[in-house]
Amino acid sequence: MSTSLATTDLSDAHADSIAHVDPVFFDYGGETRFHGPITTLKVFEDNALVRAAVEGPGDGRVLVVDGGGSLRCALFGGNLAQLAAQNGWAGVLIFGCVRDRDELEAEKVGIKAIGHHPRKSIKKGLGDLDLPVTFAGVTFTPGAWLYADRDGVIVSPTALS
Fold this sequence. Notes:
The protein has one domain: Ribonuclease E inhibitor RraA/RraA-like (Glucose Oxidase, domain 1, 3-Layer(bba) Sandwich), CATH 3.50.30. The chain has 4 helices and 12 strands. Helices cover 19% and strands 34% of the residues. Strands 1, 2, 3, 4, 5, 6, 7, 8, 11 and 12 form a 10-stranded mixed β-sheet that branches. It is α/β, with parallel strands linked by helices. Helix 2 runs parallel beside helix 3.
């Protein structure tokens, strides 16, 4: 096993057993390196379930949010980043947008998204929790492991550390 959790080192050491996420994500959180087991959400322009998730214990997990790639509103902002950090989430990967960039950067949690937008989302509570979601060239399965840093994001079916 690799002793480094850098995505470049993990990629070299485990090239045949990991998936490389397409490089479409930008760093927004106070932590740029994070990893943990995956919990998934599938939502569209509705962040009520995102809030519910980060209000609960993170236990070092990474919340992977399939927001359908929408660029029309933000699914994650400063208040949710504060909750994620306080509740022990290692990070959040959002196939959608964030807002409150200065507040996100101030929190000790990893946050990656495809963009930022000032508009808030709706809050109807529609979506699905903990089912496989596919975007950016990878299927994210609950319980698999995500490793992220400034060089990119990789996914492994098992822990690499």
